[in-house]
Amino acid sequence: GAVVSQHPSRVICKSGTSVKIECRSLDFQATTMFWYRQFPKKSLMLMATSNEGSKATYEQGVEKDKFLINHASLTLSTLTVTSAHPEDSSFYICSASSGSPGELFFGEGSRLTVL
Amino acid sequence: QKEVEQNSGPLSVPEGAIASLNCTYSDRGSQSFFWYRQYSGKSPELIMSIYSNGDKEDGRFTAQLNKASQYVSLLIRDSQPSDSATYLCAVAASGGSYIPTFGRGTSLIVHP
Question: Which residues contact A15 (CB under 8 A, 6 or more apart)?
Fold first, then answer.
């Protein structure tokens, strides 16, 4: 299957700082990427759909000014958590569509801890 | 609202047994069905996809789909401790949506 790389895998930051997470499709072009959030022992929660060259589409309840998504190229999408707070601590996972509806390839995930 | 339902488990089976994981979905027009495996602390990985009624086999894994009953299952034969993980059922809605709806996942424990 396709390879999606996510970086960093772990990040610890102080409250009030911003954190950027990168998601790259290594061997294919991804016009659409998805950002998920997962709390311990909870299900995946779709945060937003990232479209290359256009604005991201956010799910209801997700603050677009807090979770900035940029999809500047066909192989890179970034998620920036702005002014992070302890409640933003979570596992953030990006994924890319294979081109077949519903089939996703996931990055390794980024575990964010906000102190 | 489109829903995908799974028993959260845990489902505990002995090594070598068959593990049966079940999933039901609400959107009758769904076209594509997937099983993802997620190890603790890791991201999901796609292990099976199925698009038509019947069985699809891949090694020790068999996916079963019954669109009339809106039911999809995953059988794992000769279960191994390394199969212990959470298994997520995902369904792509009708209309060719690229965004699947995920179930909450079933935790599988294979004990030696």
Answer: A84, A85, A86, A114, A115
How many other CB atoms sit within 10 Å of the CB of residue A85? 11
Residues 30-89 of B with CB under 8 A from A: 31-34, 36, 41-46, 49, 88
pLDDT of amino acid B95: 63
Q: Which residues contact A61 (CB under 8 A, 6 or more apart)?
A: none
Q: pLDDT, tens digit, for every residue of A23-67?
A: 999 988 887 899 999 998 888 999 999 888 888 999 999 999 999
Within 8 A of B42 by CB-CB distance, chain A residues are 108-109
Contacts of A102 in chain B (CB under 8 A): 32-34, 90-92, 97-100
Asked if B2 has any chain A CB less than 8 Å from its own CB, the reply is no
CA distance B90 to A94: 16
